[in-house]
Design a protein that fits this description.
The structure is a homodimer. In chain A, the strands form six sheets. Chain A has a six-stranded mixed sheet with strand order 4-3-2-1-5-6, sandwiched between helices. Chain A has a three-stranded antiparallel sheet with strand order 7-10-11. Chain A is elongated, with a radius of gyration of 23 Å. Chain A has two domains: about 130 residues, Creatine Amidinohydrolase, Chain A, domain 1, CATH 3.40.350; about 210 residues, Alpha-Beta Complex (Creatine Amidinohydrolase). By secondary structure, chain A is of the alpha+beta class. In chain A, strand 5, helix 5 and strand 6 form a beta-alpha-beta unit. The first copy, chain A, is about 35% helix and about 25% strand. Chains A and B meet through helix 5 and helix 8 of A and helix 5 and helix 8 of B.
């Protein structure tokens, strides 16, 4: 699997007339070599595949990597990689989206005879189509998140603080074997729900409103991402209508997922319905994004852009309607783009569910 | 506090002959403005202090920032900041250690009449000396970590998996009000303890060896970092000796902390003692590092370097001895450099403590 990725990257390297690629972004290093750690860089060339790391990680790196020789680099990772690249010579691709000006200056100084070519997205372009093993890990992550939500709604949550509810969810993810949450879990009640990236706080979840719950698990580095919105009692009319519109728009967008559809076209499927219902200004973000080793990665499903979906991509479909001062709704699934459509990973229901108030008054 | 930081940065900006500074690293943006989020950039000039972020964060950013005007930037943060910088003109400092080649290319294109000057560490140089409010947050974080360790050792841990013990600690941090752990908590028994950055796994903590526990809490963005090593029964002689040597070296280094001491000189205090005891090769990392908004930040206490400690700095003192295949010991405190010495934040004892085996056999 990992060695295949190296072959594909090296094919792209040759296509661009490069002699080697220096991979320094840690997520890309992990994808290309299997190395998991905080200090690593890979040199990938047709006849040389190396992973540099420091003494803390050597033993672990030798066990977890595939297809690369692991070399000790001390603290000076770039220096060690540069020494190897000087020996290789020629044209070397570097990651324009990750290499900083300081690191670039060091490489330029260390490699007077090498042509450094900044390139964008060479590894990310591979990551975007998930392999079956990656899909399986994300399926496990999504199932763990679903289970956590199911356990959550079996107990009263009205009156508990957002942060406490978020922590209950995170504990459930961990107890089920996840490495952790894929981002800080969002529990946003009433007006807080109108803030898409609300940080769950000490405020209690109030009755008679909506509460947005956005969570994901990590399994072997791979993330899931899903959201549900619940009622905590009878709703004000605008929130009830917003939920119905959002649900319909999400279903329509899910049904429209297929290879070949443009990312803006897909975004428009949900956006047009929300706009026609009069909530256009209340849907301020894009329809979704890719997910994998990172919680936000390519492709981007937005109003602007020029990509198209391909089989193997894994994207979120997450329209939202945010009514300032009142509340918000977001319904989100992680979906695998298949040969002829889309296959949502989650199975948690989406019909509006009303959560009971705290029973009795005890815990 | 935050406005003072802006004044100090602007003084440094003027000293370097710059007209403005573009701050894009999110930790630095937080430090300079108070903004906490995933998409923000600051333009700081004598007569203009701006924070750019997108619609998701506007309300929150306006509430949490100080001394800056918050401007909406949509997805194109750099574009919005660049428009402002074009208007300012002159020489603009950019963060060489954080700006990527892609972002640099975009800025160069957008700002043909501005001189972009890559500078290193201008904000980091301010962050290194902690203000009393920052020290107080770190003190709270350290106390929470100490409490979690105390609760941990009150229960048997031998026979439980490393990951489960780590999770018990993380849960305790959260229950005590921390935002979370400042890094993945390390619980490393027996030979795993010889791997300084061991990822806590499913292996049970065995009896008759050492177990390294390295943890930290986050309070309002500020991290703590401390390690203790425990015995889980009578020890093999090399481990017993390693513990005694490490403890003595740590005490000596702690006693040597004071303003004006060189970072390499301080590292040598512990390293020389460990080397004289015959364990020199088994202490592969530096003596410590700065801590603050980041778990690893300036200054670095290592064999190489040319810095000196100053009052207000917050550093770890963490010598370690790692005996491959056998076990490891690391003893670490977070220490505030005071006017005349060093004041450790933690209070957890360091005399070798032997943890009992699991009682009975139940949970």
């Amino acid at each position: 699997m990992i060695v295949d990725r190296q072959e594909r990257l090296l094919a792209a390297v040759a296509d661009r007339g490069l002699d080697a690629m220096l991979v320094t972004d840690l997520v890309n290093v992990r994808y290309m070599t299997g190395y998991v750690g905080s200090n690593g860089a890979a040199v990938l060339a047709p006849d040389r595949r190396l992973l540099f790391t420091d003494s803390r990680y050597l033993v672990k790196a030798r066990a977890e990597t595939r297809g690369v020789e692991v070399r000790p680099a001390g603290r000076d990772l770039l220096g060690a990689a540069a020494a190897e690249l000087a020996d290789l010579g020629g044209r070397v691709g570097i990651e324009a989206d990750h290499v900083t000006l300081s690191h670039h200056a060091r490489l330029v100084e260390a490699l007077p005879d090498v042509e450094l070519v900044p390139v964008s997205g060479m590894v990310e372009d591979l990551r975007v189509r998930k392999e079956p093993e990656e899909v399986e890990l994300m399926r496990r992550a999504a199932a763990i998140a679903d289970d956590a939500l199911e356990a959550l709604v079996a107990e009263p949550i009205v009156g508990r603080s957002e942060a406490e509810v978020a922590w209950t969810l995170e504990s459930a993810l961990r107890a089920a074997g996840a490495e952790g949450a894929s981002f800080p879990i969002i529990v946003a009640g009433a007006a807080n729900g109108a803030v898409p990236h609300h940080a769950s706080g000490r405020e209690p979840v109030p009755p008679g409103t909506l509460v947005v719950v956005d969570l994901g698990a990590v399994v072997e580095g791979y993330a899931s991402d899903s959201s549900r919105t619940f009622a905590t009692g009878p709703l004000p009319e605008p929130l009830e209508r917003a939920y119905a519109v959002c649900l319909e728009a999400q279903a329509a967008a899910l049904a429209a997922v297929r290879p070949g559809i443009g990312t803006t076209e897909l975004d428009a499927v949900a956006r047009d319905m929300i706009t026609e219902a009069g909530f256009g200004d209340a849907f301020g973000h894009g329809l979704g994004h890719g997910v994998g080793l990172e919680i936000h990665e390519r492709p981007w499903l937005r109003r602007e852009g020029d990509g198209t979906l391909e089989a193997g991509m894994m994207v979120t479909i997450e329209p939202g309607i945010y009514l300032e001062g009142l509340g918000g709704v977001r319904i989100e699934d992680l979906v695998l783009v298949t040969e002829d459509g889309g296959a949502p990973l989650g199975r948690f229901p989406k019909t509006l569910m009303t959560l009971p108030a705290r029973r009795g008054g005890g815990g």
